[in-house]
Design goal:
- The protein is rod-shaped.
- With 278 residues, the protein is mainly α.
- The protein is built from 8 helices and no strands.
- It has one domain (65-277).
């Protein structure tokens, strides 16, 4: 009985072994086929390359002109306002005086070509532009030649009276041309010192900040020192155009006045000749 039971157990073990062997072979055969399939599918599932992103960082300048106005005290703001007013006034005078000088130069050419070709002095004066410097000189000289009477002027001869009248009119034109030049000279000579005052005040604020903080760190002195340097730069920027414009206008006015004086001298000769012809 025991021998028969052992034979049955051995037969069942052999049968189980025979069934398990084909299943293992099938699993081993299907594994290599799945691996290439997974390998072939891998490239299709690869993620797209990442694009590099750049960000632009904006840093505000804490020591610029805007910061000077925002952080400055009333002394710094007052100094800056004075320099701005000086600059605006200088440029206004430069532009207006340049226009006036160019206008008088054109009027001088017109006076040469029209006045002295007229039949009479009155007709020549009417040919000149209304309100021009040359018409003012001509009308003054003609009026002085025609009206030389009165108890106060009877002791002055007509030649001297006409000469004085023409000379006074020329001096008035010269005074009008020189209007504003004093302002340019004042700005050119004082603007650097006003900017220097702003510099000194900024350095004083820097030393005060150092004393309060107890240490000379860059963040304590950079603002006041930058403020002082800006004041110096602004003072020079105001003074240099004023000085250059002053010298240039003086030279141009000299050329313009030479044309005015030449016209006045010729007018005086015509007035004296007209009197002698009478």
């Amino acid at each position: 009985m025991t021998t028969r039971l052992s034979s049955m157990i051995a037969a069942l073990t052999l049968a189980a072994t025979l069934v398990a062997a084909p299943l293992s072979a099938i699993a081993q055969a299907s594994a290599p086929e799945a691996a290439p399939a997974a390998t072939a599918a891998a490239p299709a599932a690869a993620p797209a390359p990442l694009q590099a992103t750049t960000t632009k960082e904006t840093v505000d300048n804490p020591y610029g002109l805007q910061a000077l106005w925002a952080q400055g005290d009333w002394v710094a703001k007052g100094t800056l306002i004075i320099l701005v007013i000086m600059s605006l006034g200088s440029w206004y005078i430069l532009v207006t005086k340049l226009y006036e000088s160019i206008k008088i130069s054109g009027e001088a050419k017109a006076a040469r070509s029209s006045f002295f070709k007229a039949g009479t002095l009155q007709e020549g004066a009417k040919r000149l532009k209304e309100g021009s410097a040359f018409r003012f000189i001509a009308e003054t000289g003609i009026d002085a030649g025609e009206h030389h009477e009165g108890a106060l002027t009877e002791n002055i001869d007509r030649n001297t009276w006409v000469t004085m009248s023409v000379q006074r009119s020329v001096e008035e034109v010269q005074s009008r041309l020189q209007d504003g030049l004093a302002f340019l000279g004042t700005v050119g000579s004082t603007a650097p010192f006003i900017g220097l005052f702003g510099t000194v005040w900024g350095i004083l604020n820097a030393l005060t900040a150092i004393g309060i903080a107890g240490q000379a760190s860059i963040d304590k002195v950079a603002g006041p020192v930058g403020e002082s340097l800006l004041m110096t730069a602004i003072g020079l920027a105001v003074a240099v155009p004023a000085v250059l414009g002053y010298n240039w206008l003086v030279r141009r006015n000299k050329v313009t006045l030479d044309a005015v004086r030449g016209f006045a001298a010729d007018l005086h000769g015509v007035l004296m000749g007209a009197k002698a012809a009478r």
